[in-house]
Amino acid sequence: MQWEIVIGLETHAQLNTQSKIFSGAATAYGAAPNSQACAVDIALPGVLPVFNRVAAEKAVKFGLAIGARINRKSVFERKNYFYPDLPKGYQTTQLELPIVAEGGTLQIQVGDREKTIRITRAHLEEDAGKSLHEDFHGMTGIDLNRAGTPLVEIVTEPDLRSSAEAVAYAKKLHSLVRWIGICDGNMQEGSFRCDANVSVRPVGTETLGTRCEIKNLNSFKFMEKAIEYEVRRQIEILEDGGRIVQETRLYDPDRDETRSMRSKEEANDYRYFPDPDLLPLVVDEAFLDQARASMPELPQAMRERFMRDQGLPAYDAGILTTSRELAGYFEDTVKALGGEAKMATNWIMGDLSAQLNKEGLEITNSPIAAGQLAGLLQRIVDGTISGKIAKEVFAAMWAGEGDADTIIAVKGLKQVSDSGAIEKIVDDIIAANPAQVAEYRSGKEKVFGFFVGLAMKASKGKANPAQLNDILKKKLAG
Amino acid sequence: MINTSLKELSAQLASKKISSVELTQTFLDRIKGLNPKLNAFITIDENKSLAQAKAADALIASGEAGPLTGIPVAQKDIFCAEGWLSTCGSKMLHNFVSPYDAHVIEQFNRSGAVNLGKTNMDEFAMGSSNETSYYGKVKNPWDLDAVPGGSSGGSAAAVAARLCPAATGTDTGGSIRQPAALNGITGIKPTYGVVSRYGMIAFASSLDQGGPMAKSAEDCALLLNVMAGFDARDSTSLEREKEDYGRDLEQPLKGLRIGLPKEYFAAGLSADVAQAIEAALTEYRKLGAQTVDISLPNSKLAVPVYYVLAPAEASSNLARFDGVRYGYRAPEYTDLADMYGKSRAQGFGAEVKRRIMIGTYVLSAGYYDAYYLKAQKLRRLIAQDFTNAFAQCDMIMGPTSPTTAFNLGEKSDDPVSMYLSDIYTIAVNLAGLPGMSVPAGFGANGRPVGLQIIGNYFSEAKMLNVAHQYQLATDWHTRVPQGI
Fold first, then answer.
1. A to B CB pairs, distance under 8 Å
2. Cβ A228 vs Cβ A258: under 8 Å
3. Is A41 helix (H, G, I), strand (E, B) or coil?
């Protein structure tokens, strides 16, 4: 039987506010345990929550970025359950009325296919603390620094059909939340975490299969592997005539498998009800206007602009708009260069990206600034150096030997465009290789490359390639 | 000195006729003498109180005293006070010394008042007789066989027995007004949102409201001036202009329209209470007021609606008492679930457990719509009744409680009959309105009767005026229990 994979993702993105969602304690990561937990975070008797409006601003920005409807009035509710790292015995979250309502979408590219993923909702809630099971000799330590960190939970429709689509969506979302400046996206520190709801159904059927939720996928690689494992597991069960049990599963990267955490029957009854300590969150027109005004140009719009105005292919424009910094670098380069967008793109996505990846650097830490790269490309455009020599100059620039013009001058890399000098080289080669010349003249034009290679070598790569071609052709023709 | 009004005490302190240390010591001595009989206080700390009194005397000497500077005030043990044991009447918090001050405590400290100690109360404010306290029952000073009411029974008994000049209470369904009535003192529950709930240990967040309990309406006005005020740490605190609740005390009552809800004078009201209330109304007519018959048709729903909503909120509010971070933890347990189970089973008393279970039930999947949501809808109808009534009258009056103080143990095995002792007070909390109780004579058994005054939103100053004029014309509020 042919199976169709159906995936929906729930993503928890920590909002990068200075203080917590319901208290004034700081949210910085990595502080000494419980040093950033105030009376409210510890849930002392008598304390009360006060909502941090900055979290609403960030959630609204997200809603605007995906084109969703914003609820003018959203309501905080209590999700009640006991856990040691949940100090109040309930999590304050939104259920019936989330701040970001329906209507949002995200465009993903898988291969050369584009697809629209619908986002059901996004709501505000608080993060829990952490239980530390190591180092406490059979006991558990509780660190409440994270308790109360604002989260926005982003839920998709079951629109994803493969692990590749799920990863493409997650990457796109990851890039968007960073783009609009609401989340630092640090997956190691847990700032961006995904849960995947996975089910399979026979191709052609409408009803959804029973789903399993895989929790806490904190890297794109694990997400892909976990979904693939889970799909295989479910198909095997179904093909053996079994039945999928709805449950929550955890992915174990060491063994590359998912394991049951709790079944639906064991699931808590969370007894949600509106939090009487908090007023409904009202978003008025002025608040929306302010959020709109603070929005940068969105990646989708920028991508279309790059395709339209710079004539870039969809793929290139997509890559360049994965982060605001990369797009900014591209725009700065083209501006300084006065055009040549495709050439700039090839260098940025090619040599520059390769070198950055190799050294694990972000574009913002590139040793070659956009203006410097433009300076190098300018010398290709004006014929001072060839593309090949440019790579050598690039390497020197990367190594900090100065800007392109300095390196070209110091190393004597200026292209030879003096036709007399090139003619002399060509004459010498023709004279030294009569057999190949005869071959060429008998119609074996493939040998042409042999002459180019020799000429380049003789000029130490500095011969102007176009000029060299012309002269070679003319002289070989006799 | 023990029967002196706050205004007069303040004048004597200002003129150095007495010192705050003397005043505080006088009440501390009375507590030492009488508390073993009444059990009105859970915690006394002479050193702390006297240190505050000394500081108050210095403030007075420097000429920077306010109206409450140097006045000892007993604090209900529901208010967290820095460095004080703050138990909320529960074993669960038997060891909880608060590291911070509630807003109300801060306000009193700022005013230079002296914290005289923490008063006994029903556990987590759940009770109408003070019999649910882990720290033992409070006795009614008018009759040691009678309950003092609850949940602010310790504060009420302490004021009635003159163990303190004034005290604080909190009122979720009548917990200021009912004990005030049963002890023959004056107490006011302000409009929801007037007094910050920050640091007031939560029972039912949407209903809880702190307020003063004292010998007279005039004293209550001075106390409310200190307790009320916007506090950004409580999202339900109302941002309003600071007001002087005593500003209208001397206004005549001519033309005042008093609404008498027929539902508050129906079956269930005992004859002696009815008689005392009638006499009070006659007094009001003499003062120039007129009475109007009104109806609050949804009154009968108030108790059932309350016993859905308050436990629902409580079941969640009390989830933090889990033995993990502070408070009581069972000495022995096998694993996490067992620690939760045992700590809560041992740390909470029967009434608290009953309400947690009711609350958990009404919020459960499949029951939420039928109970919680339905109750929320009815709550709006109950509030609407009052809005309609205030189109016909300025104040609503009736009995605070259907009977005078009942006997200790009389209702402790019958929760429903206990819940019905708040039948006239609960609707006021559901509507968020201000309500007060004023001494209005005695029942057949010699126990006090309270007259309830219900005002429209933010009409506290007017209510205190209405009560004060009555207290100028009567002397019920000056009567003190004899022979304790």
1. 98
2. no
3. helix
